[in-house]
Model the fold of this input.
Amino acid sequence: MGRYATKRLLQAIPILALVSLISFGIMKLVPGDPATVMAGPGANPADVENLRRTLGLDKPFLSQLVIFYVNLVQGDLGRSLMLGTPVTDAVIERTPATLAIAAYAMGLTVFFGLLAGVVAALRQNTWVDQIVSSIALIGVSLPNFWLGLVMIVLFSVQLGWLPTGGYVEFRTDPVGWLRTATMPALSLALLQIGLLARITRSTMLEVLRQDYIRTARAKGISEFRVIMRHAMANVMIPVVTVIGIILSVLISGSVVVETIFAIPGIGSLLGNAILRRDYPLIQGGLLFVATSLMVLNILIDLLYAYFDPRVRIDGSA
Amino acid sequence: MRHVVRHLSAALLAGVSLAALAQAAAAQQRFECPRRGGDLIFALEARIATLDQHVNPASSRNVTMNIFETLVTRDENMNPLLDLAESVTPSADNAVYTFRIREGVTFHNGKALTSADVLASFQRYQRVGFDRSILEPVTRMEAPDARTFVITLREPRPTFLEAISSFTVPIVIIPAENADAPAQQLPIVGTGPFQFVDRVADTQIRIRRYDGYRPDTRHQQMLGFAGYRQACVDTVTFRMMPEAGARTAALEVGEVHGVEDLPTVAQRRLAGNPNIRISRLDHYALVVGYPNLSQAPTDNVLVRQAMQAALNMEEIMEAATDGAFRLNPSFQFPGQAYYTDAGGNLYNQRNQARARELLARSGYRGERVVLLTNREYSYMYNAALVMSEQLKAVGINAELLVLDWPAALQLSTTNAGWNFFYTGWTSVFAQGGAQSLRNLANPANVHRPPNNQSDDVFMAAFNDITRGATLDERRAAFARAQARAFDQVMAVPFGVMPKAQAVRANVEGFRPYYATRMSNVWIRN
Done:
């Protein structure tokens, strides 16, 4: 397994290099440069040019690219144009909030999504199934910005239970963290809960029709044991893949949710960076997201092998 | 006495706030904080990236103008006002300006302010400052003694004080030892009533009262970013809350003491709330558009005049601002030194018959008229949307091109691919009379005239604004320039947007301005 993980990590290097090249190239091709944005409309062209020189944007494309890669191999992602701080610091500073909210949202998703999916499958075509499926459909359909605002009105303005926004770090105040992270996590999770519930339900229904489940029941094994030991183990194989995708969506951050709740995370950082054409920050942020997704994919593959012993992680069947 | 005379002379020449000075002198009582203490939490719309005020033209002013001060700033009506300068003495030909620095002012690190700091600040601004072209006529700067700072210009420039008092990107005074800081990396040490404490990225910035602050005793009250200022609260926490709904909710539940940029819809809802007080700066931003003079068919003045004739500004501003607007036939706001309605007869014509007649005379054959806008600033998008329908109604083949703001802005700096661009002027007015029209003058020319040469008649008037020896002469020149801009349709002012801010009822002394001011504000028990 160690060899496999190492091999996958090495494979990730050229992919990350490609990601960085694409992100660098795309941002240069898209119209709008940071100096123009910072200068604003009606700025004196000489001032814009001075600003461009100050920001180091006057160098040719290839020079900028070479400088970027030379710095990258030294672990230096450059300096953010809008923040004036090293990109690495900016990303690291905002990573905990994004990861913490993503983990919270993931926990909610897995718990409620799996539970709802399994219950709906076991009570197929009953009112329980109808309700769960309807809620799942609503969850998938609701835009999270609308949901976030409605939650603020309900939980903050009307009930006064939770703060309207902001973020408190878990290590400084766990209760404060729970209060500030709950609405953003719920906003993010609801869509994913609906998605996971629907996939879990359909997978469970398929598994329950398999011969080995019928055999297990015929042997007189309790229904709980049939579900938990025989059915769930097989349901988890496709579900783990979906969970991996969901987690990558959550980690890459939600610009909208982080903006609504004033969360200092990667999503809002990248959103701002794109709107201001802060090239170093966009490249650094994308590299961070790409790296996280690579690591996540490797972990998912390892988990996949854990749930399905037929899969040999060395590639042989 | 000579200083006073020269100071008043300078005031007359540059429009320095005599009215404000007189008002201050007439005031019976100097402001004293009725109550001190407390942490005032104020919600800002923007996520402030950096506090280097030499470089940032945008929202950082909301925080920094409570921390930093300038030699000369603006009063409530945008007239120049001395701040860290005790006096200014222009030479007879307005080519040399000698500033006397106020005594007893100290930086937040305890060091006394001297002219060496002022010199170093101006030199850093020349090197990295955003609006460094305002120092372009400067040939020499020197600090002959600890309290004297002298600027020598290449040529007489009566409007120099207007230029350097602009708070668009102000020349804030920093300690000389920080002047080598690269752009965006300035240590946050100023001379203002508040000093920087800390910041949490994208979340909040805290400032606290600077106990060594020496208020400007020439005045009785706060004027613009200067005057007699005091920090009444212990600390101010600026929370960054970009979402208007969340910001408003935070105010309603009392999580914050105040918010900036309250949406019009929320203003109506909160109007009856006894716990909230809404205040409004009536003239905050001019919604404005530019035609592209290098792209057909807007290279034809008759087509542009037809477009202008077709516009109904009430409809456009209603959509742009949710009904919170004032019509304004001028490129200045009422009450400002250069305000005039010259050429205003061409504003808000709502004359479709005339538009069709001008179109017929122009030879227009249904070419596309591309209205370049964006969705990040909804007022610009809405203005474009309504305007496109008004143009279609007179037979113009108007078409929206919606890009994101950086892409739209970038495209607007080229000569092709668009015919009309939408934007808003806010701090443009802080640049003074001449400066506010410089967008239409060489070399800026946002309206993209052929060969980047603006209209000769306009340029003659514009140069007179810059060089006019007296304020009256410059006002007259401004009126001529504005009338020409209307006649040639070099830009189209749609109307004025207010800026609404709101505070909890226990917050006293808060007055809206172009950026958030926390001096002379206190929290009632």
Summary: The radius of gyration of chain B is 23 Å. Chain B is about 30% helix and 20% strand.
